[in-house]
Each structure stands twice: as structure tokens, then as C-alpha cells.
Amino acid sequence: MNIRYLFSSPEGDIALQPEELSRPFLIAPATPHPSLLLKDYFESIRAFVLGKHAGAFISVLEQCFKKKIDLSDIREISIRSEKHGVLYHLASIEIQTNGRHIKLSVSTAVSEKTAAWLRKECDILNFLNRSFSPSFLPRVYFSGEINRRARDNTQQKLFMCLSEWFEDFHEWHLSVDKADNRQKVCIWDQQHGNRYASPEEAFEIFRQASKILTLYYDTATFHHIYPWHHAAGDFVVRTVHGNIEVKLTTARNYASVLSSLHEITANPGIAIIYFLLNMSIRMRLDKLDGVGKTLWAGSFAAEAAVKGFFDALRIMEAGGRYRLGKVGDLHALLKSFDVKELETLFHPLICSYQHENPADLAVIKENLKTHVQEQHRSLHTGFPDEPGEGLAGR
């Protein structure tokens, strides 16, 4: 069995040499781990799937390939460092057998605090995947700890989770096209090259993202997936025969919507309105190319958020999950608000953002008046009549 350690890059895979593996493992772009080397990170992933949890790993491969698999059937494993997040680190693991291959995901937490977050995230993903079908979230296969003796001779615990990798799905971010100096959605396709989405594709990405979040909203408990952020690459996209398909890569929390506004949102009808308002703002926030200054998506995002929201509600209504009367009545209520009334509804949200990202808050305040006008207009420009395919609670 051949095992390769790689870095993912826009130019293709970078094979790591022994001298590179002897460098400190970075827990942030400029922050080395005090005792772990890059080699420790890769070899811990190897030990996770081929050592302590080899039996569970083989069971996963058998599920995916739908046939009996033995370790000797594996010709090559490529462990690829994909991304270093704020809380943990993401790698892909690509397994080649005779004539077939599959790609899986390994998330790694290197501290007790981040391990607690990753455990919670795995539990939430398992709960949502059991509770809703079909799923727009990755399947979690198994998780566990790996002990690694570091260069200072201390025992370091790494918590890892093996989950589904969304094949051919790509991260995307707001960017500025130097050809015309206009803001666009850039799809990070590392197989065929990055490209700018057309206006229709960009609208569809935002519509589907809004639809997915709404489909996971529970009208009885007000629970929903939050926080999420485009800058974190939480939504990914692929194009199949010209059609856009969006998935959500994680769910960090699933709790009552806007708990800081509990007194205001105690009424189920009011709670779902605030869910929409909050989502409509969050949907427009990203960072330039994923890492730069905070950007505000164009006016199409306001309409896409409203469209995705009502697309989902009609699906929920058809499946008996809406439970708040008729979706048409909610739409009529929202349409009845004039611009000033709608702006007043947004004010408690701004207060709730005070303790969150200051850069986001400044951009929200700068664009709020225009956003309210665009939101008001979007509520009057159409309403889906027929539900399509979507999520059903079990």
C-alpha cells in the first residue's frame, strides 16, 4: 500500500518531502504548534484510519463500495491537507482500490477546547442526519482520539472525525473580477480552474443556501443551524449538466433561533420572521476571496434569500412540517409591512450583533437601509406556488 502526504493548492497537489514534514505543524497561518510537527499531523491521520479504528474504516469502505474490502485491497491512500480553520483542521483522504476510488474527510482538533467543539459538531450532524431526509449535510462515519508522542516527549491528544466528502463540490467566495472591477461569485474549482459564476448561477447558489437553512428550521422549537458564514466556506457548490447544486458542509450548533431576542421571538410567527430577517443579512456577508475585507453581496442576494425561504416553507407545508397555519398568510403579513415598519423589525437584530464580528457589524450598519428596501421589494416580486423536492422530518 502506497501512502502519500499532500498539500492541496489551486495549482494542484503538492507532494510533501521529509524536510517539509519536519516543520512545525501550524495551528493558524502564523502560529506553530508548540510541540507537534507536520509529520505528526499526517501520521496521526494515518494511525486514525489504519490503526486504532481500522475495523471501522474498512466497514465504511465496504458501505461505500458495496462489497467486501480488505486492507490488502487498498493500493494507495492520499492524505491531503485541505484547509486550516479557526477551530480545527480539514484533510481529505483518498482511497484507491483496483479500479475504484473514494474520497473522505478527516477533521482534526488539537486542543481540549476545539475537541469539545468538534465532538458537539459530530453529535449535531448525526442528529440532523437522523431527523431529516434527504440530507444536505455530510454523513459522519466515526470519531475518536489519537495519542501522539510529540518532539518534546509529551503525549498529545488529537480528536478526529471521519465523515463524507462532497465529491466535485467546491468552495466559493465573493471576489472582484479585475477584467471589469465588478463584484462576482468566484467558484474555487481546483480541478478545472477557478471561474466566475454567471448572475443566474450566483442567484441560484444563494437561493439554495437560503432554502437549505430554512428546511432545517423547526417551527415548534425555533431550532435552526447557526452560526454559519460564507467566509468559512460553509456552503459548497457543484455544477451538473449546467445545473447548480448546493450542500452545507457543517452544522456547528442547532438551537433556538436568536436566543438573545427570546422575549420578542417567543411567538412562533414572530420567531420565523426574525429567522428570515437574520438569514437575509447573514446571506450577504462574506470576505473578499474568503480571507480579505468583509464584503456585502449585491441586491440579487436579498431576492434569492426570500425566494429560498418561501421555497422551503412550501415544501414544509406540503409535508406537514410547517405547523403555523398557511404559508400564504405569512407572506401576506410580511407584504403588509411598509419599509419603515420593516426597518424597525431589523433593529433588535443589530443590537444582538454587537458582540459578534465588528467588521461584519460595520458593514451591516452601512448597508442596512438599502437592504431593507431591497428586502421589501423582494417580498412583493413573487411567491412560489408549488413545492419542489426538499427535506422531510422523520
**Which strands sit side by side, in order, in the main sheet?**
2-1-5-6-7-10-9
* Basic shape: globular
N- to C-terminal distance:
42 Å
Helix percentage: 25-40%
Structural class: alpha+beta
Main β-sheet: number of strands, strand sense, barrel status? 7 strands, mixed
Query: What is the strand tally?
Result: 20
How would you describe the overall organization of this protein?
It is a single chain. The chain is α+β, with helices and mostly antiparallel strands. It folds into two domains: 2-164, no CATH class; 172-393, no CATH class. The protein has eleven helices and 20 strands. It has helices at 18-21, 38-52, 54-65, 112-131, 199-215, 262-265, 268-282, 300-318, 327-336, 339-352, 358-378, and strands at residues 2-7, 14-15, 24-28, 31-37, 76-84, 89-96, 101-109, 132-133, 140-149, 155-164, 172-177, 182-187, 195-196, 223-225, 235-240, 243-248, 254-256, 285-287, 294-296, 392-393. The strands form seven sheets. It has a seven-stranded mixed sheet with strand order 2-1-5-6-7-10-9, sandwiched between helices. Strands 11-12-13 form a three-stranded antiparallel sheet, with no helix packed on it. A two-stranded antiparallel sheet has the order 3-4. Strand 6 (89-96) and strand 7 form a beta hairpin. The longest helix is centred in the last third of the chain and has 21 residues, at 358-378. The relative contact order is 0.10.
Any descriptors?
394 residues; seven-stranded mixed beta sheet; 11 helices; 38% helix
Summarize the structure.
The chain is of the alpha+beta class.
